[in-house]
Each structure stands twice: as C-alpha cells, then as structure tokens.
Amino acid sequence: MMIKYKRIVLKLGGEALAGGEGKTGIDVQMAEDLASKVKSVKDLGVEVALVLGGGNLWRGKDGLSHGMDRSVADHIGMLATVMNTLALQDALVRSGVETRAQTAITMQAIAEPYIRLRAIRHMEKGRVVIIGAGTGNPYFTTDTAAALRAMEVKADILIKATKVDAVYAEDPRVNPNAKRYDRLSYIEALNRRVGVMDSTAISLCMDNEMPILVLDLWQPRSLERAVTGEAIGTIIAGD
Predict the structure, then answer these.
(1) What is the pLDDT of residues 184-196, one digit of tens each?
(2) Chain-wide mean pLDDT for the chain?
(3) Is residue 63 part of a domain?
(4) Backbone angles phi, psi at 87, to 5 degrees
(5) CA 12 → CA 143, 175, 178, 223, distances in Å?
(6) Is there a domain that residue 1 lies in?
C-alpha cells in the first residue's frame, strides 16, 4: 500500500476521550478505540505524533466567566491535556504500540520533557509520541500547539480529527444542505472563520506551508484512507 504522508501530527480534541456528545471525563473504552485507530496507521509504517486537547476535563471559559485569571485557567487546561496523554499512552501500550509521552511543562516523574529532536528520534524508531501540555504557554490553544509541533517535527501534514467529515459553510447538523468544501486555501479558511481550527493555528500553518486535513475520525478507516492519499475530508493548503 502506497503511503502519501509518511509522518503526521494528529490533533484530537479532549472530547474524543469522553465517550460521546456532552460527556466529560475519560472513558477507557474510548481511549482503547482511539489507540486502535492510531495503531492501524502506525502499522502501515506511518510515523505518528499526537497532540490532545483537554476539553473533556476542563473548560477555561467556565473559569473566565467567574473572573478567573486567564493564565491560571490555561495552565489548568494544560494539566488536563497531560491526564488525557497518560490515558491514551496506556491504551496504546496495552495494544502493543511502543509510545512515549512528552510534555511542554516539565513533569519528569510521569513523562519526558518535550525535546524536538528526541521526539523526531522516537518517531524514526517507530514509536508513537504524544505531546501534552500544549505549548507550555497560556493564551495559546492546543490547535496552535499542534500546528507548532507539526512544523517542529517536520510532519508531512497536520490532521485535525473531528466528529464532522469535512469543513462546511454552516453547521451540517443544523443545516443538512450546508455547502461542503473539499479544499480551501488558508486565506479562505481564515476569511470564512471555519470553526474546526483557530485562526492562530491556521496562520501558523499558512506561514510555514503546512497542509491541514480535517476529517471525521470515526468514519471507518478514515485515518488509513487519509495517509494513503484518498480523497477524504477537507484539505486546507496553499492556492
């Protein structure tokens, strides 16, 4: 099987570990399902790094609505992503996938510090790398962290895995006839304010010519189809 994207960074929202719409916490079965999907592309010979969100455990906007300091709220969110990182690492290891957890905030008792060259070396050796704690800085989302890590590890593509099969002009759950986009330029994605990824992350990818693929993680074989170059989801790239 021909592989189009040899090295990928996969961005997952924390909700992917929660077990369903509106649910919170970590569902171990969901972690195992995610591990199975990651293993399927790793077994094809694809080098994989993951960046996880923390929305299943903490929503910073809830704290901000009560007057919480933004930096405090964001640091709590970073810690939430580390909890998700450990849960997914455990599921991957139990499925037989050698995995390394790295964090942007030093936590030596539970994970390696994020070091770019070490992450690349792990991937070259066939290990899946999960990078937690975002960028390690407040005011930056995990989308931006994923874009940054994709550039740093020289990924071929950044894959944003969602529960929607592509980018639409409107929410397809509200308007079933919403226009679907197979491809968008970075500028079009920014101008249309697509909700799948924040503008800072898209701008960073645009400045560094990193393509973004938005797909539905839960469609059968979606990741495998993506890395082999099948037409799936929406590509956001240069003109």
Answers:
(1) 999 999 998 888 8
(2) 95
(3) yes
(4) -65, -45
(5) 9, 25, 24, 12
(6) no
**How many degrees, rounded to 5, is the angle at CA 8 between CA 3 and CA 10?**
130
What is the secondary structure of 146-176 as a DSSP string? HHHHHHHTT-SEEEEEESSSSEESS-TTT-T
Half-sphere exposure of 117 (CA within 13 A, CB side): 0
Question: Can you read off the two tokens belonging to residue 18?
Answer: 């929660």
- In DSSP notation, 35-74 reads HHHHHHHHTTT-EEEEEE--TTT--HHHHHTTT--HHHHH
Whether residue 84 contacts residue 27, with contact meaning beta carbons closer than 8 Å, is answered with no
When computed from its CA atoms, the radius of gyration of the chain, rounded to whole angstroms, is 17
The domain spanning residue 147 has which CATH number?
3.40.1160.10
Rounded to an integer, the average pLDDT of 225-233 is 95
* 188 in a structural domain: yes
Q: How many CA atoms lie within 13 A of 180 on its CB side?
A: 13
Tell me how far CA of residue 117 lies from CA of 56, 58, 124, 204, 209, in angstroms.
30, 30, 10, 20, 21
**pTM tops 0.85, yes or no:** yes
CA-wise closest residue to 114 among 96, 130, 127: 130
Range of the domain at 78: 7-237
The pair phi, psi for residue 229, each rounded to 5°, is 90, 10
Distance of alpha carbon 141 from alpha carbon 158, whole angstroms: 15
